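Anyone else keep sequences and structure tokens together like this?

Example one:
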Amino acid sequence: TSVEARAGDFQPSLALFGTTVAGREVDIRALVSGQIIKTGETLREGGQIDAGELLLKIDPIDYRTGLAELEAQLLETRAKISEFESELAAGKQSLKHAREQVELALIDLSRATPLVKRGTVSARTVDDRRQIVLQRKQAADELENNLAVWEARIAQQIAAVSRLETSIERAQRRLAETELRAPFSAYVTEVSAQVGRMVGSNDKVATLIDRDWIETRFNLTDEQFGRIVAKEGTLNGRQVEVRWVLGNNTFTYPATIERIGARISSASGGVEVYARLKDPSQPVPLHPGAFVEIDVPDTKFNAAFRLPSTALYSGDTVYVIEKERLVPRKVRVIGGIEKDILVDGEISDGDRIMITRIATPGEGGKVTEAQSR
């Protein structure tokens, strides 16, 4: 039997196998310590939880009390600032009056000094007035020093307010963390939290697997990977089809290749590839750990010949029928589609290629041709 060779453009699919894995898997841990007083209804092995849903609640009484004490200290500190600011304002007013008294005393002294020479006032009177000036200056200086003290006290209280505000913010966060909520919609596994149990900060309570981020992991051979990357530059973004076979039912999921493994596996002799499912919940929810089939579009082959695999001998030879005689031609297998192979090499459009398997084909062998197509 023979077929007529016809060159064409083909893009076969690679039929591969792999498993589904979690794209995001997080160990949820308690953020504060205390006794668990409530857990979410879906916090159980195999449960499905929605983003923002309550996982558990820790007794908040100690954290609420601590926050209230800090808020009371803040009110008290702010009241002290108001008190000190009033004292500072009063001190500034007293200092103003004291300086006015100094000016009056200086005027009085300046008037009395010339009168000593005339004998109108005694020298003792001038000395007394000079003493009054010194006393009033001393009183003004003391008031000015007191103002610096009040300003320092106010600065200290302002710093205390800043520290308390930071502590209150931290306490508010701790109080909020007594309620632990799901960061994303997930499957629940490895649950260890129960009502009544005491937990410490950083104790694990469950593991969440993002149910909207499921990937399939599979391997490409070095040859397959190199062929696609050499022609197209990257594997990322390639659309693939994932099939999950359950008994007589087959469920199909579109997916996109997002990355390759960080290391090339010498043991498996290939490249590990990850493709993210666009919607792992449709047509039925797909969990991590499922064995799946993956169809990956191969690179596009131009001017290639599609032949049945039975046409190939010794991995690189086909036989063209010319005048009922076999003529060997060298070819190179470049891909495959279903059970057929794609080749290029020493064949041309219109050549009749023998596809019947015979034990000892040879150059010049005589055959009787029955055309297949």
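And example two:
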Amino acid sequence: MVTLINHPGLKVMKGLQLQSPSPPIGLAYLGGFLKQNGIAYTAIDACGLALDQVRPFQGDASVFIQGLNSAEVLARIPAGTRVIGFSCLFSHCWPLVFDMVAAIRLKFPEAVYVAGGEHPTALPGSALKPALFDVVVNGEGEETLAEIIERVAIGQAWEDVDGISFLKNGKIFKNPARKRVTDIDRFPLPDWDAWCLESYMRAGQVTGINLGRLMPILGSRGCPYACKFCSNEAMWGRRYIMRDPKSLVDEMQAMKEKYGVSGFTFMDSTFVVQRAKTLAFARELISRRLDLSYQLPAGTRCEAFDEELAFALAKSGLKNFAFAPESASERI
């Protein structure tokens, strides 16, 4: 049995600014892939299940934990669970994962604990050295996690699986990287039904500006740049892969019809890289007249922008985005 857990969230309050957790798109993608491959799993959205449950973090009145506590998560893990997976995108959330896994291990000592996401990929020692996790999935996780689960199910060793790091005799071993998937449109859509999407939308809890009933979406994977402050190169390498524009708009249309959304928040590291494909995406969205808005809150590079693309994006429903110059140099 497999359980995937979204850790509780950190709500950071500073003046009028509020940073809040949003629906776990990475875990929803993993869940969709597992289901496609006949692997049943239990989803525990520790944040989304209790958005109204907010408490100070370690006595700090400016930072609050949002969601279930460890005991409440433990009560939802099915008996006999053999693989327990956590994802962590941001390092500031790692203490929440750390505390929860420590508590869960006491009740499920024989399970295989898997960590994935940007933080453990960039800093595997933080997950493995405290002997909390057994294995870190490096980078893109769908195929790697499925292989680990299949090995565990038949009692086979998983230490030779590509794309992982693990601890042995006090030393961290990093296996060869798994080959990146280039046809990312073949991945199934995120399994949103297993997570608390509706709760997040009702609460208006999204990344970026609240433009109504918004849900997360990914239009690409990776980034071709290697900024010194960013974990991208460890997570994805330097290969940027954008989805087919038609497939991307197909998903937007399907999600509007299924969940009644009014728009989307793109969670891409940087969406506008390939000008021709981005322009094709905007034109596809315009031609279907879906009356959707969207935003690019993570920031995007400016090299591919010109007047034609800017007007096409605006006409297609882009309401908010940020440029990311990635440098403190005035000349650059």
